[in-house]
Structure formats: C-alpha cells, structure tokens
Amino acid sequence: MEIKAVIFDLDGVLVFTDKYHFLAWKQIANELGIDFTEKDNDRLRGVSRADSLEIILEKYQGEELSKDDKEALLKKKNDIYVEQLMQMSPADVTSDVRDTLKALRDRGIKVAVGSSSKNTAYILERTDLTSCFDAVADGTHITRSKPDPEVFLKAAEFVSEDPAYCLVVEDADAGIDAAIAAGMHSAAIGAATRSNRAEINIDSVKDILNIL
Ligand code: BG6
Ligand code: MG
Fold first, then answer.
1. Does residue 143 sit in the same domain as residue 207?
2. Which of 71, 120, 141, 155 is the most exposed place for a label (fewest CB within 10 A)?
3. What DSSP assignment string belongs to 131-162?
C-alpha cells in the first residue's frame, strides 16, 4: 500500500491512558449502581465523553437524570481522569512509539494524531510528544466522534494528504469503522484486533514500519 501519512489514535495506541478512562468511568458507573467491566469499557474506546455516558446509562435503573445531572457526571468523570493524567511524564511513552514516529518522518511520511479526546493537547504536552507530529486533530475540532470519520478527515486535511494515502492506527472498533468510512487504510492494535475489522492487525506500533 502507498502511504503518505499515518494517523495515530491517542488513547490506547500512543499512550495507555485507556486504563485511566476505564477507572474514571468505573467509579462513575458504580456510584450510579451500574456494574462496569473491561468488556463494557471496550465499547467506549474512541467514543466521545458525552456518548460514552449515554452507553453507560443503558444499564441505569435509578431516577431519571436531567441534562444538568448528566453535565455534572461528565465533569466529575473528567476531573477524576485529569487527576490521573497529572502523574504522566515522557516515561509513559514507549521507545517503540518514539522510534516509530521518528522513523516515519525520516522516510518522509507525515504523522498526525486523530483522537476524540479533548484532553489530547494536555497529554501530548505532559509526555513530550507535541513536536513529534505534523498535525493534531482532536475532540476540540469535531462535532461527531468515531465511528464518524470527521476526526480522521480533519487530520488528513491538516497534513494536506488524500485520505486514500492515509493509514490509521487504532485500538477501537469505532476507530477502525471511522477509518474505513474515511476511505483510509487501517491497522488495528490491542482491543480492536479481536473483531478483525481492520486491513491488518499489529502487535506493536513499530510493526507498521514493515508494511509501508
Ligand atoms: C477517546 C477515548 O480517545 O477519547 C474515549 O478512547 C474517550 O474513551 C474519548 O471517551 C474522549 O476523551 P476525553 O478526554 O475528551 O474525555
Ligand atoms: Mg483509542
């Protein structure tokens, strides 16, 4: 495949913040009397904060929640999550990730982030990854989260490349569906490998260097 840009998802691909999302949502769900497992969490991968709450509330049996109640829950979830992010440092990025980003750029391939998260800029800053990318498209640039292709199309636009020459690396089924909807190539890692929806499954981000 001819690839001119690689678009990386953030949470669960470049950094393992997916575990912090899980712990924060588990606390919120449990306080609402809802059981919340790792399997439930897989449905939230790549999905916006507000849409994630709606998925969690599918199992809610308490009194009806108002718009303000939901806003308060979303704020609480993010406060718990951001508290966890404060402990992140450059050491939270593996050498595989750093070496792969550098190797891609050395080959003249553009690298971008395509994430639903509104905390993207903060995470990239804390982990010293900001300067490793040609462009960042995130939750602050979009109105529809994955599986809608909007964030990946924005990333392609930001690096001025045709979607057909972009490869998306994703740990979420919703992200793989978004990549396909964007007309891009797709590589699944972690949880997204189980559904076999992507063009290829990889064990480590560095594996993409062997297929380009
Ligand atoms: C995605 C995560 O990257 O970002 C989702 O996989 C998360 O789990 C979404 O809900 C939104 O993140 P944030 O940081 O804006 O709440
Ligand atoms: Mg992810």
1. yes
2. 71
3. GG-SEEE-TTS-SS-TTSSHHHHHHHHHTT--
Partner residues linked to 112 by β-bridges? 7, 135
Summarize the confidence of residues 110-126 as an average pLDDT: 98
For the question of whether the overall pTM of this predicted structure is more than 0.90, the answer is: yes
Query: Do the beta carbons of residue 88 and residue 15 sit within 8 Å?
Result: yes
Alpha helices, H only, 14-66: 18-31, 38-42, 49-56
What domain range includes position 75?
18-85
Q: Across the strands, what pairs with 7? A: 112, 168
Number of structural domains (the chain) is: 2
DSSP, res 192: G
Residues with CB in 5 Å of ion ligand 2 = 9, 11-12, 171-172
Query: What does the radius of gyration of the chain's CA atoms come to, in whole angstroms?
Result: 17
C-alpha 3 – ligand 1 centre gap (Å)? 27
